[in-house]
Write a structure and sequence with these properties.
Blueprint (H helix, E strand, L loop, with lengths): L1 H5 L2 H14 L7 H23 L13 H6 L4 H28 L12 H19 L4
Helix pairs in contact: 2-5, 2-6, 3-5, 5-6
Length: 138
C-alpha cells in the first residue's frame, strides 16, 4: 500500500492531471514520464508476483527490517526488488515535475503567482528526488 499507492500514486496521479491544468501546458519530458510509468507498472507486477511465488507472501511488513527479513522463508527478495523499482519510478516522476515546474509554466506565471497546489507538488517532487539518496542503513 505504501509503495504502490501512497508514495507514487497520490502525487503522480494528482500531479499529472492538476499540474497540467493549473500552470503548465504539458509535462516535460515525455520520455522520462513514460519510463516512470513503465517502471511503476513493472514494479507493481513484481510486487503482486511476490505475493504468490516463493515461500508465500512477504511477512515482514512494509519496512523489510533486516533481522526478520533475512531469516524468513517467504519471498522477501522479490518484494524488496519491487520496492526498489517503484522507488526509481518515484524519482523519475519527481524529476519530471521539477522540470515541468521550472521550464513549462504558463505565460506570465511567475514563481509567486503559482497556485498553492503547484507548490505542494513541487515540494513533493523534490522530496521524491532527494529522500532515497538520504537513506542510510543502520
Amino acid at each position: 500500500m505504501i509503495f504502490l499507492i501512497v508514495i507514487p500514486g497520490a502525487p503522480a496521479v494528482l500531479g499529472n492531471f492538476m499540474l497540467r491544468s493549473t500552470s503548465a501546458l504539458a509535462t516535460s519530458p515525455s520520455e522520462t514520464h513514460l519510463l516512470s510509468w513503465y517502471c511503476f507498472v513493472g514494479g507493481a507486477l513484481l510486487a503482486v508476483t511476490s505475493l504468490f511465488t516463493g515461500g508465500g507472501a512477504p511477512d515482514t511488513g512494509w519496512t523489510f527490517y533486516v533481522p526478520y527479513s533475512v531469516r524468513t522463508t517467504t519471498n522477501v527478495t522479490l518484494a524488496v526488488f519491487a520496492a526498489f523499482i517503484l522507488g526509481f519510478s518515484s524519482i523519475l516522476t519527481g524529476l519530471n515535475f521539477v522540470t515541468t515546474t521550472h521550464r513549462l509554466r504558463a505565460q506570465g506565471m511567475s514563481w509567486f503567482r503559482m497556485p498553492l497546489f503547484v507548490w505542494g507538488i513541487y515540494a513533493t517532487a523534490w522530496i521524491q528526488i532527494l529522500a532515497p539518496r538520504c537513506w542510510r542503513s543502520p
